[in-house]
Design a protein that fits this description.
With 332 residues, the protein is an alpha/beta fold. It has a five-stranded mixed beta sheet with strand order 1-7-6-4-5, with helices on both faces. Strands 8-13-12-11 form a four-stranded mixed beta sheet, with helices on both faces. It has a two-stranded antiparallel sheet with strand order 2-3. It contains twelve helices and 13 strands. The protein is globular, with a radius of gyration of 19 Å.
Length: 332
């Protein structure tokens, strides 16, 4: 009998550094104010790593919780994909360090799509599982954005925070006769890149450019415009591929970059505000970690239940962006 694979999301975990930085804390070190930050971004606080705390440390903590949540052990994992723009070292991959920390022997590599990295990583992981590169994949989004911020630039330094989130994807084989009425897991992914806008969000340093990590630079007005248009269109493409519409979505989990961007997308595609998961106020923009962090918060609060339909989307430097639709959990 013909069979088909489904890629289920079966576990989730997250980690935030202990050090929390409020807007009032930033007032003490730069020309800004709590009111200015909240009005323009929706952010109240964010978490920063300590000087000796690495992206791999955060990623490992989130990964361990996701594996436990899925009812698995590290050795069950066949594939690890880390989305990050702040790796521990230029090379080797930070994913390989997480693999070592977990004590498993999974295929491991990093994906660099900045804030869109988590959506990219799920798209890649789902495709690799379907192509038989294992049965269980760990997707991690982790970033130490505080380490590439210029504290003389208040337009960017107030936006970002540090953190990590992880999910487990599992390949499930199902008979074709049941697929149409029993679709679970990752239902559609769409990812895009347009290098024409390479300079809108970038760092001013790099290994081959000037042997420096550099600081984050952003054209905020242009990013806002592209984010609303590109994220809205990519979501509608995904829904069309699933034969769904906005009303079929139980929860919308966008990249947590700016509350005004989230609100603008909601208005553009007519997503009710009571279906949107937003953690921007307590996390800031944690880049590749923002979606899994928000997802974990929503699951732990009991907002998201097994079988809910989720829409995830993100945009980052490159420009790179994408959306995905999934049915979370697995059949009873």
């Amino acid at each position: 009998m013909d069979t088909k694979s489904q890629i289920l999301l079966t576990g989730i975990g997250s980690y935030l550094p202990k050090k929390m930085i409020s807007n009032h804390d930033l007032e003490k070190i730069m020309d800004t104010s709590d009111e200015w930050i909240r009005k323009r971004t929706g952010i109240n606080c964010r978490h920063f790593v300590e000087d000796d705390e690495l992206t791999s440390d955060m990623g490992t903590n989130a990964a361990q919780l996701a594996i436990l949540d899925a009812g698995l052990k590290p050795n069950d994992i066949d594939l690890i994909i880390l989305a990050t723009t702040t790796p521990d070292n230029t090379f080797p991959s930070t994913a390989s360090r997480i693999q070592r920390n977990l004590g498993c022997k999974a295929i491991s590599f990093d994906v660099q799509a900045v804030c869109a990295g988590f959506v990219y990583a799920i798209s890649i992981g789902a495709a690799m599982l379907k192509d038989s590169h294992g049965k269980k994949c760990l997707i991690v989004g982790a970033d130490s954005m505080s380490k590439i911020l210029d504290w003389n630039d208040r337009s960017t330094s107030v936006l970002f925070g540090d953190g990590a989130g992880a999910v487990v994807l599992e390949k499930r084989i199902i008979r074709n006769e049941f697929v149409e009425n029993d679709q679970w897991g990752v239902l559609a992914t769409k990812i895009f890149t347009d290098g024409e806008y390479y300079d809108l969000l970038s760092t001013d340093g790099g290994v081959s450019k000037n042997k420096s990590t550099g600081f984050l630079r952003m054209n905020g007005k242009e990013i806002f415009k592209h984010a609303v248009e590109k994220l809205s269109s990519s979501l509608l493409i995904c829904l069309d591929e699933c034969n769904m519409n906005i009303k079929d979505i139980d929860w919308f989990i966008p990249h947590q970059a700016n509350q005004r961007i989230i609100n603008a997308i909601s208005n553009k595609v007519k997503i009710p505000f009571n279906k949107i998961i937003s953690t921007i106020s307590i996390h800031g923009n944690t880049s590749a970690a923002s979606i899994p962090l928000a997802l974990d918060v929503a699951v732990k609060k009991g907002c998201i239940n097994n079988g809910d339909i989720l829409a995830l989307q993100a945009i980052g430097g490159g420009l790179s962006w994408g959306s995905l639709v999934l049915k979370i959990g697995k059949p009873d």
